[in-house]
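Morning, I've got a small favour to ask if you have a moment. The fold is given in discrete form, as structure tokens running alongside the sequence. I'd be grateful if you could look everything over and explain what you see. No rush at all, and the record is pasted right below.
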Amino acid sequence: MRNKVKMSLTHHKHFLLGTCALGIFIDIFLFGFKADLVVLFLTVLWILSVYLYEFEGRVSLIGGLAFLTICPFLLIFNKKLVAEKVVLWAYIFLAVGIVRLFVEYKKRGEKG
């Protein structure tokens, strides 16, 4: 069952990643409000993308650090709501990256 789901999702992995990236951009810069369900949906899409592309944990960590780098500039230009959303996404990316690193370390420990 698990392999069937992964095979069907693998055919659409580029669409999932593109939808996730576009959705995060729209959530941060175009929505003038906070939408928890949108954040939850996009987080699930990101986790699926990490799983399907077999990204290392560093990919999510770099994304989180990129979001954190943007934050001071947004605060300088008095974009507090956008900065708050960027920090939220930074936290999500850092959390996913750390969980992914734990999974990688566990797999390495089982191999050797």
Summary: Helices lie at 2-10, 13-29, 36-53, 57-76, 80-111. Residues 72 and 78 are 10 Å apart (CA to CA). The chain has one domain: 2-111. The first helix runs from residue 2 to 10.
